[in-house]
Each structure stands twice: as C-alpha cells, then as structure tokens.
Amino acid sequence: MDKKTGVAVVGYGGMGGWHTKLLKSIPEADLKGIYDIRPDRGQAAEEAGLFSYGSFDAVLDDKEVDLITIATPNDTHKDIAIKAMSAGKNVVCEKPVALSSVEVQEMTEAADKYNVVFTVHQNRRWDEDYLVARQLYEKNTLGKVFNIESRVHGSRGIPGDWRNTKEHGGGMVLDWGVHLIDQILMMLSRRKLLSLYAVLSFVTNEEVDDGFKIFY
C-alpha cells in the first residue's frame, strides 16, 4: 500500500506539461519521465528537470512505470493506448478519448483483455462554476428547473495547429464540446437522454467546425 504509482506522460505539449506539474504534487504518484516524438519537446522536459525517454518502447519497457498518461493529438490516442495496455500499463487518456465510438470500444475491449485500468481525463468536471450549478440543481435550490444552458465563447476561431485539421480530430465539438457535453450528462445522470439535435458552423474554415449548438 505504501508503493507509489510510477507514471510516465506521453506527449509534452500544453496538457502534457500541465500533467507533469500536477503529478509532482500528488504524494501517491512517482513521475518517471515523459516521452514526446519531437526532440525539442524532450529537450524542454530535460531543461525542466524531467527525464525524457528516447522512445515509446523505452517507456513500455520500464518496469517501474505502472501508468501512462496520454496527452497527444486526438487521432493518436487509440493506438498509443492499446499498445500501452498490451504492455500491461494502466492508461489515463486526455479528451476526447478517440475520434469515434468504434475506436472507444476497441480501447475498452483492450483494457478488459489485458486486465488494466483505462479511463479518460475530464478535468472540467471540477470547474467551480459547474460544481456550483450542479449543487444548486441537485439540492433543488431553485425549484423546478426547466432549462439549463452552458456555453463557451471565443473570438479567435480555431487555433492554428492540429485542432483545425479534421484528420487529427480538430473542431470545436471535440475540443470544448466534449467538456460541455460531459458536464451536462454528469449533472443529469439520473435522467434518461431522450433526444439530441446539433447544429455545427463552419465560418472561419470548411474543414472542421468552429462553432456548435447542441440541444438535449
């Protein structure tokens, strides 16, 4: 019970860096290092005092690594996760977990097959504004609630990286939409979803959605 969980972070970008900082503050976690396909990101990790693995296989071969956190572009999640699980590693994957429900099913089946833990990191479940709204709803503080609206606005469109490329899982539904959908489903977990209608916009580009409205 006193053994710490050895963790390696795959992908040392914005979220990967955030995960390493958080892991350092968790007493039960032992951050073993990171791996990124880009040499400059590995160098940045080393400059930050972290160990940088030379390859993904090196991460998998490290017997002290019990868990792998995946913080890479969306389209790479499935293959990395399944390979990690086949090596006996538990996996925490950034959202969106995959590009389709078929891929998600493959990942959950791999977790069952290799008898490891597989879960998704949904950090917006702990946003203070959401937690307050959820508490008001659950305690019936406002009386009968007939409409709940949650929204996020931006002024700069889709960032100019993999997020604006369809093949890499870009678009606002897979970026912010996953958070908002997850929050409302968590809040209304005792109610059955009866219908859903979605409208996506493509104002700034034609490849991925830059806005959406979803009605439950």
Describe the structure.
The structure is a single chain. The protein is 36% helix and 17% strand. The protein has 216 residues and is of the alpha/beta class. The protein has 2 domains: 117 residues, NAD(P)-binding Rossmann-like Domain (Rossmann fold, 3-Layer(aba) Sandwich); 90 residues, Dihydrodipicolinate Reductase, domain 2 (2-Layer Sandwich). The strands form 2 sheets. A 5-stranded parallel β-sheet has the order 2-1-3-4-5, with helices on both faces. A two-stranded antiparallel sheet has the order 6-7. Helix 4 packs parallel to helix 5. The chain is globular and about 55 Å long.
Strand content: 15-25%
- The CATH architecture of the largest domain is 3-Layer(aba) Sandwich
Spatial strand order of the main sheet = 2-1-3-4-5
Highest CATH level, the class of the largest domain: Alpha Beta
Shape: globular
Mean pLDDT: 93
Counting DSSP H or I runs of 4 or more residues, the number of helices is 7
Which structural category do the helix and sheet elements fall into?
A: alpha/beta
The largest sheet, given as strand count, sense and whether it forms a barrel, is: 5 strands, parallel
Question: Using DSSP, what is the number of strands?
Answer: 7
Radius of gyration: 19 Å
CATH topology of the largest domain: Rossmann fold
